[in-house]
Amino acid sequence: MSGSVNSKTSMKAEPNLTPLLDIVFQLITFFMLVINFASDNYDQRVNLPDAGSARPVEDDTRIAEDRLVLNIDSEGRLLQGEHAQGIDEAVQTIRHQADLVKLGLKASGVKFDAETGTLPTTIILRADKETNFGSVLGIIKACQSQGFRKFALKAMIRS
């Protein structure tokens, strides 16, 4: 019987783990990037004011909103990374951010209403408790001139 199959020879199937490892690596990389970007928005140099009536936002619809966090130091300068910008530089930065929002809207197919000039992005202002109101108002006016209309002010909850 030269044509018979040896019954002792068996084939073993070993799973290929390479695609699984690739996916796990990509997920780890994604979460590392997301965590890093989220922490960049909140500058630790800003000491928020205490507010007895402040309370956490409970509306889950705000999570899906487009947000822009602006940190203002005690001297009224806009903080961008390690750089503190005066009002003139801050206006340029805000204009640049507005242009990016408009490009994002255009790329996603959302029509921007140029007549009203209102952008859907919420500006989150984190101003130091020593910042004078005039500086904060200057930043707010610069944002409004670029089409931002929704604002949120951050404060520490007094316990």
The tally of helices reads 3
Regions with pLDDT < 50 over 5+ consecutive residues? none
- Overall shape: it is elongated
What is the averaged pLDDT score? 77
Counted beta strands: 7
Kindly, what is the distance between the CA atoms of the first and last residues, rounded to a whole number of angstroms? 90 Å
Q: If strands are numbered along the chain, what order do they take across the biggest sheet?
A: 4-3-2-5-6
Into which percent range does the helicity of residues fall? 25-40%
Strand content: 15-25%
Secondary-structure element order, N to C: HEEEEHEHEE
Largest sheet: 5 strands, mixed
Structural class: alpha/beta
Subunit organisation of the chains = single chain
Task: Produce a short descriptive summary.
This protein has a five-stranded mixed β-sheet, covered by helices on one side. It is an alpha/beta fold and 159 residues long.
Task: Please tell me about this protein's structure.
It is a single chain. The longest helix is centred in the N-terminal third of the chain and has 23 residues, at 18-40. It is elongated and about 90 Å long. Strand 2 and strand 3 (78-80) form a beta hairpin. The strands form two sheets. Strands 4-3-2-5-6 form a five-stranded mixed sheet, covered by helices on one side. Strands 1-7 form a two-stranded parallel ribbon. Helix 2 (87-107) runs parallel beside helix 3 (133-145). It has helices at residues 18-40, 87-107, 133-145, and strands at 50-51, 67-72, 78-80, 83-85, 119-127, 148-153, 156-157. 36% of the residues lie in helices and 19% in strands. It is α/β, with parallel strands linked by helices and 159 residues long. It contains three helices and seven strands; from the N terminus they run αββββαβαββ. It starts with 17 loop residues before the first helix and ends with a strand.
